[in-house]
């Protein structure tokens, strides 16, 4: 009943909001910062696959197709999570709980973006990329959001596959297939996801506890979360090194993977060593995770073009 009343109020509020406010709200539904992040990894993977510039038609179609898929699945995520978003301080002002976008409109918007993504990838790229786009959309919007997130503390681990699809799309957009190098890029994002999200979850632990979301710190505790984060950071560093041998990269990429991956491992180690009641290194690990992927994928591009 409470959700129904809130959604009824959202419809009325949306009707009173200015056009610009509504437009901004729909943009926010797509989680533009996250979408930009995933588009960057696909863009870099396409350059590595082409051993240079893949052509404007490929880049534009890839950016548009992936942007639509990522944004659409994000909108579905916000539609489904609107009940817990109202409870958590971090998400209480999102468009649906804030009453700017009606839930039904967000659902239709997300589904339309997902369909358009498949159309764009099929017409202007190739069937493989279209299949990967659809798979990433369903993985995030359905498998992670509707199943994993509320059922297991391994939600981020298993669900990390959704965010790791973009490099496969970037590679496929150029070649029509995926290679070992593309799968190792997939592995980088997959292994990066737990220490990234768990460091955030450690900072927002009470939010997740209040919303009854079984994130690792809530279910297993702070110490277990830090131990597992350290293990993933080590595996992440080794995967970054392995990627050097999967394609003809310049030694610059090897140096980048050693320094950037080693630096992230060190920060995660400091978080592990920190008393569980402190969050100084937890916060630093989270910010280091934000820099890790852009630096690594930039290193791949430089290591390809040099």
Task: Describe, in plain words, how this protein is organized in 3D.
This protein has 306 residues and is mainly α. The chain has two domains: 1-178, Tetracycline Repressor, domain 2, CATH 1.10.357; 179-306, Four Helix Bundle (Hemerythrin (Met), subunit A) (Up-down Bundle), CATH 1.20.120. The chain has helices spanning 2-16, 19-29, 32-50, 56-80, 82-85, 103-124, 127-148, 155-163, 165-175, 180-203, 205-210, 216-219, 222-244, 251-273, 280-305. The longest helix is centred in the C-terminal third of the chain and has 26 residues, at 280-305. The N and C termini lie far apart (61 Å). 49% of the residues are buried.
By CATH, the architecture of the largest domain is named: Orthogonal Bundle
Order of helices and strands: HHHHHHHHHHHHHHH
Rg calc: 20 Å
CATH topology title of the largest domain: Tetracycline Repressor, domain 2
So how many helices?
15
Task: Return residue spans where pLDDT drops below 50 for at least 5 consecutive residues.
Answer: none
- Shape designation: flat
Structural class: mainly alpha
| Overall tally of domains | 2
Distance between the termini: 61 Å
Main sheet attributes: strand count, strand direction, barrel closure: none
């Amino acid at each position: 009943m409470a959700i129904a009343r809130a959604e009824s109020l959202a419809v009325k509020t949306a009707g009173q909001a200015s056009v610009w406010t509504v437009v901004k709200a729909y943009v926010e539904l797509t989680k533009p910062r996250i979408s930009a992040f995933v588009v960057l990894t696909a863009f870099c993977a396409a350059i590595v696959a082409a051993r240079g510039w893949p052509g404007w038609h490929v880049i534009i179609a890839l950016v548009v197709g992936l942007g639509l898929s990522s944004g659409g699945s994000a909108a579905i995520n916000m539609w489904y999570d609107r009940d817990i978003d109202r409870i958590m301080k971090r998400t209480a002002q999102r468009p649906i709980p804030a009453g700017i976008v009606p839930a039904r409109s967000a659902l239709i918007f997300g589904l339309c973006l997902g369909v358009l993504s498949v159309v764009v990838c099929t017409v202007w790229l190739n069937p493989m990329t279209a299949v990967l786009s659809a798979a990433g959309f369903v993985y995030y919007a359905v498998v992670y959001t509707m199943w994993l997130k509320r059922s297991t503390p391994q939600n981020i681990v298993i669900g990390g596959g959704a965010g790791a699809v973009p490099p496969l799309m970037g590679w496929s957009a150029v070649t029509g297939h995926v290679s070992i190098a593309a799968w190792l890029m997939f592995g980088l994002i997959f292994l990066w996801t737990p220490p990234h999200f768990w460091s955030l979850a450690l900072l927002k632990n009470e939010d997740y506890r209040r919303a009854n979301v079984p994130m690792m710190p809530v279910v297993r505790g702070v110490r277990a979360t830090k131990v597992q984060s350290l293990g993933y950071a080590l595996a992440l560093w080794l995967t970054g090194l392995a990627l050097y041998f999967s394609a003809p990269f310049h030694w610059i990429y090897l140096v980048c993977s050693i320094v950037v991956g080693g630096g992230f491992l060190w920060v995660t180690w400091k978080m592990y060593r920190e008393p569980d009641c402190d969050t100084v290194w937890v916060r630093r690990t989270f910010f280091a995770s934000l820099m890790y992927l852009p630096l690594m994928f930039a290193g791949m591009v430089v290591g390809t073009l040099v």
